[in-house]
Amino acid sequence: DAKTTQPTSMDCAEGRAANLPCNHSTISGNEYVYWYRQIHSQGPQYIIHGLKNNETNEMASLIITEDRKSSTLILPHATLRDTAVYYCIVSLRAKTSYDKVIFGPGTSLSVIP
Amino acid sequence: GAVVSQHPSWVICKSGTSVKIECRSLDFQATTMFWYRQFPKQSLMLMATSNEGSKATYEQGVEKDKFLINHASLTLSTLTVTSAHPEDSSFYICSATRTDGRQNYGYTFGSGTRLTVV
After folding, report:
1. Interior CA angle at A110 toward A108 and A112, to 5°?
2. Who has the most CB within 10 Å: A2, A21, A58, B95?
3. Distance from CA of B82 to the nearest CA of A (A)
4. CB of A50 within 8 A of CB of A107?
């Protein structure tokens, strides 16, 4: 089973910030939080990941709570092209091996003109 | 950045035939590859994990004799759907990862293969 829970769907006005929450209350100390998105009929696209510090890149910001039990992905200025299903995933990132990635249902984000 | 190429992007085959899907890591050597299946309006479902040179590990409920996975090199993994039936019609996606023992470079996904069995 997926280790995360997310709202099923969200709407966001074009140009506004989209804030997508994720609950991962059973996350362990060595598990990372990853965010991916999937536009219809394409493979998932990496957005951002983090362990405990907030992270920012050219696509988004990731805010992780101090207890690491939840996080929020922020798309600062949503565009119509950001309409997609967003997946929050927790996974190990050991130096010599990878944990398998289990996807939950994700959040379907609709950016509205 | 890391690129994973998946081929073909779509395929239509007759019931009872076999179909091979290729997943290539273009600019890195993939330590591990994952295969997923996705039905319409559903999330990705992990089918199996494969490491180069060893047998794939299948998830519960996935028939290993029906979905043959070969990971013969660090840049290529193949999924063969044998004796395909209409219920095997789905979107198949691969993912590749790599580690050099000092750090990891995340998961990169292919663009997917739409299989339609008629």
Report:
1. 170
2. B95
3. 23
4. no
